[in-house]
C-alpha cells in the first residue's frame, strides 16, 4: 500500500511543482511515470523477483522504462511505439530527478537518509 501511495504522491508533487499537462503532452506524463516508478519502490529488486523480471545489469533502469510505458498505455489511447518514444525522449533527465527525496529510497534505511537530508536541506542552500 505504501508503494501505491508514494507513487501517486509523486504524481501530485509533479503536478504542483512542474505544472504537468497530463492530457495534452504525453512527454509530461512519461516524465512523471518515470519518476514515480523509480522513486516509489515499484522497481525494487524484491518486487521484480516476485514478477519474475529481474536482471543484474541496469535492472532498475530497465524496470523503470517498462513500468512507465505500461502506465502510459493504461491511461492513454496511443500505440506502444509512441509511449516508448515518449519515455525514451525524457528518460535521462526525469530518471535523474530525485526530488523530493534527493535519492532513490530503495530500502527503509535509504528512506530515513532521504528524510534526514530533507530536514537538513537548509544547511546546503544557506551559503548560496
How would you sum up this structure, described in words?
This protein is mostly helical and 128 residues long. 68% of the residues lie in helices and 0% in strands. α2 crosses α5.
Structural topology:
Blueprint: H1 2-18, H2 26-39, H3 45-50, H4 59-75, H5 80-95, H6 108-119, H7 121-125
Keywords: Hydrolase, Metal-binding, Metalloprotease, Protease
Enzyme class: hydrolase
Protein name: Mitochondrial inner membrane protease ATP23
Please tally the β strands and state the result: 0
Biggest beta sheet attributes: none
User: Mean pLDDT, as a whole number?
Assistant: 82
Shape: globular
Q: H/E order of the elements?
A: HHHHHHH
State the distance separating the first and last CA atoms: 39 Å
- Estimated share of beta-strand residues: under 5%
Helix content: 55-70%
Structural class: mainly alpha
Protein name: Mitochondrial inner membrane protease ATP23
EC number: 3.4.24.-
Enzyme class: hydrolase
GO biological process, one term: proteolysis
Feature tags:
mainly alpha, 128 residues, 7 helices, globular
Compact overview of the structure:
The protein is an all-alpha fold and 128 residues long. The protein has seven helices and no strands.
Amino acid at each position: 500500500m505504501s508503494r501505491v501511495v508514494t507513487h501517486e504522491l509523486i504524481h501530485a508533487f509533479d503536478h504542483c511543482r512542474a505544472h504537468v499537462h497530463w492530457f495534452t503532452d504525453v512527454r509530461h506524463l512519461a516524465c512523471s511515470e518515470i519518476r514515480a516508478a523509480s522513486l516509489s519502490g515499484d522497481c525494487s529488486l524484491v518486487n521484480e523477483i516476485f514478477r519474475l523480471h529481474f536482471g543484474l545489469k541496469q535492472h532498475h533502469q530497465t524496470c523503470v522504462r517498462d513500468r512507465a510505458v505500461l502506465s502510459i498505455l493504461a491511461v492513454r489511447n496511443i500505440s506502444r511505439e509512441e509511449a516508448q518514444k515518449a519515455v525514451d525522449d525524457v528518460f535521462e533527465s526525469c530518471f535523474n530527478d530525485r526530488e523530493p527525496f534527493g535519492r532513490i529510497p530503495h530500502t527503509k534505511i535509504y528512506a530515513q537518509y532521504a528524510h534526514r537530508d530533507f530536514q537538513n536541506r537548509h544547511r546546503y542552500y544557506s551559503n548560496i
